[in-house]
Amino acid sequence: YVDADRIKIRTSRGVDEYILDKFIRSNQRTCINQRPIVKKKDRVKRGAFIADGPAITRGKLSLGRNVLVAFMPWEGYNFEDGILINERLVKEDIFSSMHIEEFQIEAKELRSGVEEITADVPNVDESYLKNLDEKGIVRIGAEVEPGDILMGKVTPQVEIKLTPEERLLRSIFGEKVQKVKDNSLRVPPGIRGKVIKIKVFSQENQDDLPPGVLKRVKVYIAIQRKIRVGDKIAGRHGNKGVVSKILPEEDMP
């Protein structure tokens, strides 16, 4: 049996199952992903490669891309460690890479009350809430952009003085009407991607959380980044430099 997440191999002792790493965030915020390279009914021997990983192709080290390189001066843009690249490398995603960003939010117990993660966020346009589920957490697979709400959170505010409207509501309903503040987690500027994973930790599930923290939610967003000015690139022999300019195809030598 073979799919994107696991490989099962029948042996003389039974069935061995291999779980593949899918879209795991590295310490450098890059994406670690394994892909099966065998098919159903293939015969494999001990030591055979059954899946590729990052920088591995068919069991061989595969770093970087092969591109045509010219060693020559070009109007001062490649002075010292400056490197000019063709705009086609950007258009065709030759050096594009996948990165995973982690965002988290906590619901705490405060002196003014208990914070709540919810989809009912006051005074917010519905367009910013379109990706939230009924619990106020963004859905897996949602495409997000700057300003979108990843998790809705409201924080109770300490009441100092009641307005006439609040006094009227309290007299009608006979209960305290408490103000809440919008403390939702939003996508920061410059981040556009797809939600690939969500982790929820809570006191109800007996997860290890700091005192006063009732719930913690982590959201992982996969982002495709194209090569740009300021990025560092290197050759296989240790020669490295920084992209100083991206030239249109017609201006390349």
From TrEMBL:
Ranges in coiled-coil conformation: none
One of the record's GO cellular component terms: DNA-directed RNA polymerase complex
EC category name: transferase
Pfam families hit by this protein: RNA_pol_Rpb2_6
Domain DNA-directed RNA polymerase subunit 2 hybrid-binding: from-to ranges: 1-253
InterPro entries referenced in this protein's UniProt entry, alphabetically: DNA-dir_RNA_pol_su2, DNA-dir_RNAP_su2_dom, RNA_pol_bsu_CS, RNA_pol_RPB2_OB-fold
Record flagged with keyword Transferase: yes
Keywords assigned: DNA-directed RNA polymerase, Nucleotidyltransferase, Transcription, Transferase
Single GO term (MF): DNA binding
GO biological process: DNA-templated transcription
EC number from the UniProt entry: 2.7.7.6
PANTHER family membership: DNA-DIRECTED RNA POLYMERASE I SUBUNIT 2
Listed name of the protein: DNA-directed RNA polymerase
